[in-house]
Each structure stands twice: as C-alpha cells, then as structure tokens.
Design a protein that fits this description.
The protein is built from 17 helices and no strands. By secondary structure, it is mostly helical. α6 runs antiparallel to α7. It starts with a helix and ends in a 7-residue tail after the last helix.
Length: 399
C-alpha cells in the first residue's frame, strides 16, 4: 500500500507541474509576442516540458495509444530529413517543436489511461489555457483591424474538451469567451471549422439521445450556442464583411495550385521522397515574391506541406492519421457512446484544418496531441469495460 501511495504521489506531483507549466507557456509566449518581456520564457518552458516528457517516456512503457506509431513516424521523418538537409541545425529546431507536442501526447495518454490526471486538475489546467488565450486574443484584436491567427486554432482544439466537461457556469463562460475570441480574429478557416464542428457535435448529441424530450434539449442548446455565435458576428460585422470580400483567400488558391504543380513536375525521386523539409517555404519565396532570399510561407495545408516536403511518405502519414481517427469515430458511432459527439466534433475540426491550415508543426498542436491522447484512452477504457462485461455473461461451462 505504501508503494502505491508513493507512486500516486509521484504522478500527482508530475500532473501538478504540467498543469502549471502548460498555461505558463501560453502566457509567456503571448507576453513575448506583445513585447511585454524581452526573454523568450515560453520557449524555455517548452524545452523544459519536452525534457520532462522525454524522461518520462524513457522510464515508462506506453502501450495502447492508437496514434503512437504514426506520430513517432511523423517525428522520425522530420528528424531524418533535417539531418540530411543543407540546414540541419535550423531544421532540427522545427523537429524540436514537433517533438514537444508528440512526446506530450504520449505522456498525457499514459496519465489518462491510468487515471493519474484527475478530472478536476485537468479541467483547471484547460480553463487556464483557454482563459489566457482568449483574453490576450481579445486584447490583440481590440488594437488591430487586421485578421490574425492569434490563439484561434488553439482555442478551436480546446472546444471538444470544454463541451465534454460538466456544464458549470465557469465552463459556460469559457465556451462563450472562446467563441467570441475565435470569431473576432476574423480567421475564416477557424470560424468555418467552429461552426461546422458545432453542427456535427449537435448532430452527434441527437444521434445518441433516445427520447424526444432530450432531443429538444439538444436542439435548444444548439440554438443558444449558434445564436451567440451569430450575435458576435453581427456585432463585428464591419470587420467580418471586409474579410469576406477577400474572395481569393489571400492568394491561397493560386498558391495551392502552384505547390501541387511544382510537386508533380518533379522527377520520380522528388515525387517519391519529396523535395526536402520546408521545401514549400523555399518554393513560395520564388512563387510569391520572385526572390529566393525572401522569407517564404508554409503551404497553409498540412496535406500539401507534407506531400511537397516528404513525398509519398508525407501522404502516408496524413492518410494513416486520418484512418486511425476515423476508426475511433466508427467505434463510438456503432456503439452510440456518450463520447461520440466529442469524437465527431474533433474529427471535423481535424479534417477541415488539415486541408486549409498548417497546424501540425506548431507548438499549439499540443492541445491536439492531448485531445488524441484523451480520445484514445477513453476509447480503450470503454473497450476494456465492454470486454469485462462480456466475460461475466459467458457461462462457466462454455469456458
């Protein structure tokens, strides 16, 4: 018993440290970006968290995480391509950014599957993350008339968690302020993913709800949330309408076609292995600015970025990642679990954002990694519980 208490105390300390450091990363990143501090404290904290994650992974066997192999494969691609590139040190920095959230997802899975991360502590951590991201996003947008990413996508990935928590007044406030913060960034991709994912969430709720009375409650909840979102859009219509007038997507359609054309114009080796890590940025520097010395932009599409950079290996990563996500979704739909609406919403956000955004190489993807860990651990718990219940109904004579 003493050994068990000692073990639980160790994990309690670990989850306490993570619960403090993760919101602190968001806070200090914002303070640095807003020029309130001169030291990249957020970068140092991410490095510290990465070291904690690595040490934990080395000392623990992490089994059953559905996304483990595909995420480690993705990280290996970055590592190998960085080492053979012409700028290995610079590209290893991008690899470290990915290692941060991938290793974090593995650690969170272990903590979730073994119930070491209490719901109360995790909820508090996420509320701190959402509050910091929302407040600074609102502050930034109140001082700017231009659309900006701010923390729109980080908040978007936090939404499935907020809707999975018990709906206290604090959670309702967090949901409302998150919707407001996402919409006022005027990021069409984030707003589109928010609205469509809310639709799929309420569809999922209606799907698993049996009685007509409960379906009415779901419908009423959807009206309230959509009504609030539309109210925010209406009160900021001047900025929204100006943004909607940009029908070209800031040239994204031409850039997409240029990236695809450049990839397909390559020889067999370039099509199979890709043109190298961050090759999209080198291409867009010429394609958009006509100068190889200028700073190129990423593809604004995870599919196109990794296809161009890693060729068939990049496409394999995206296909497998989607396949594993869909297999979890299929399980919850077949069994009509309470988690189905959350999984459906999560996959909707994932499917949309990977098409027209570039999120998998950013530290903010840590929220996605935690979401994948949560969905995988909860799915395994449900499967294990069903297997135990099934065995209890098997007659002894049949064994």
């Amino acid at each position: 018993m003493n050994a068990i208490n000692k073990s639980n105390g160790k994990y309690n300390f670990l989850t306490g440290i993570i619960s403090i450091l993760l919101p602190a990363v968001i806070l200090f990143d914002w303070l640095y970006n807003l020029l309130q501090i001169n030291i990249q404290a957020g970068l140092y904290l991410k490095s510290l968290l990465t070291l904690i994650f690595i040490f934990f992974i080395i000392s623990h066997k992490i089994r059953g995480f559905k996304f483990k192999n595909v995420l480690l494969y993705f990280l290996s691609l970055f590592l190998i391509y960085s080492l053979i590139s012409t700028q290995p040190l610079q590209n290893l920095y991008f690899t470290a950014r990915i290692a941060y959230w991938i290793f974090g997802s593995l650690v969170f899975y272990y903590l979730f599957i073994n119930n070491y991360f209490s719901e109360k502590r995790f909820r508090l951590m996420l509320l701190l993350v959402v509050s910091i991201a929302s407040i600074f996003t609102i502050q930034l947008m109140s001082q700017s008339e231009e659309h900006q990413n701010a923390s729109a996508y980080l908040l978007l990935w936090s939404f499935p968690f907020l809707l999975s928590f018990r709906k206290s007044n604090l959670i309702k406030i967090a949901i409302g302020i998150s919707i407001f913060a996402i919409i006022i960034t005027i990021k069409r991709g984030a707003i589109l993913a928010l609205l469509i994912s809310l639709l799929t969430y309420f569809y999922g709720m209606a799907y698993i709800t049996g009685s007509f009375k409960n379906k009415l409650r779901v419908f009423a909840g959807s009206i309230i949330l959509f009504g609030f979102a539309l109210f925010v859009i209406y009160t900021n219509w001047e900025f929204v309408s100006l943004r909607l007038e940009d029908t070209t997507g800031s040239g994204r359609d031409k850039m997409f076609l240029g990236i695809i054309s450049n990839y397909l114009d390559g020889d067999f080796f370039e099509i199979f292995f890709g043109r190298g890590i961050n090759s999209v940025q080198r291409f867009t520097a010429l394609f958009l600015a006509g100068n190889s010395r200028s700073e190129g932009v990423a593809a604004h599409s995870d599919w196109l970025q990794y296809m161009h950079d890693f060729g068939i290996f990049g496409l394999m990563f995206m296909i497998i990642l989607h396949f594993k996500f869909l297999s979890i979704l299929r399980f919850h739909k077949i069994h009509k679990t309470q988690l189905f609406p959350i999984v459906l919403m999560s996959y909707t956000i994932f499917a949309l954002t990977t098409i027209y955004s570039f999120i998998l190489n950013t530290p903010d993807a840590i929220i996605l990694g935690i979401l994948l860990a949560f969905l995988s651990s909860e799915t395994n718990k449900i499967k294990n519980e069903r297997n135990r219940n099934f065995k209890t109904f098997i007659p002894t004579s049949a064994l």
